[in-house]
Design brief:
six-stranded mixed beta sheet; about 170 residues; Rossmann fold; alpha/beta
Length: about 170
């Protein structure tokens, strides 16, 4: 059976991104596999921000690391739940996937395992300055994946829903 893969690599994404992936899966009569990537370094990132402002001491407590990862995982389940609801409303089969490593290699391994006909990937809008120094997950996948890659560029966070989808590119 055909599959469409939707890669959710950060918590702030719009309803339109989900709609596009579900619409494509319905049109292709394919299963929608939604992959949520948990960032392994999230606890360190939170700790760094708290220590920079003087809120925490030298080393993060193990409880803090567990709490941050638990919150990240919960957000992932909520995101996958939104995708599942939309897929069910449209009569599309759904397969949730969660991976703890938000790297291109991990996504490529999931693509190899699931063998989707198309990959939908979200991309945050970068400030012009940063685009010269870093490459996004979406850009890397578009370059390295041999199947159709649909990049949905977003500006804002989830609160803005449909108004934050800036662009959609098919490569």
């Amino acid at each position: 059976m055909k599959k469409i893969l939707l890669v959710l690599s950060y918590p702030g994404f719009s309803g339109r991104a989900i709609d596009e992936a579900v619409r494509s899966a319905k049109k292709e009569k394919a299963t929608l596999a939604a992959l949520y990537l948990l960032e392994a370094g999230a606890a360190e990132s939170v700790f760094d921000k708290f220590s920079d402002i003087g809120f925490m001491g030298d080393r993060p407590a193990e409880d803090l690391s567990k709490l941050v990862m638990k919150e990240s995982r919960q957000r992932g389940y909520e995101a996958l739940g939104k995708v599942q609801i939309k897929a069910m409303e449209e009569g599309v089969d759904f397969e949730p996937l969660v991976e703890e490593d938000a790297t291109v290699e991990k996504v490529l391994s999931v693509i190899d395992k699931t063998d989707p006909s198309a990959v939908f990937v979200l991309k945050k809008k970068q400030r012009a300055f940063f685009k010269y120094f870093t490459r996004s997950l979406a850009d890397e996948l578009a370059e390295r994946v041999s199947r159709e890659v649909v990049i949905i560029t977003e500006e804002g966070d989830q609160e803005k829903e449909d108004s934050n989808v800036k662009d959609m590119d098919r490569k």
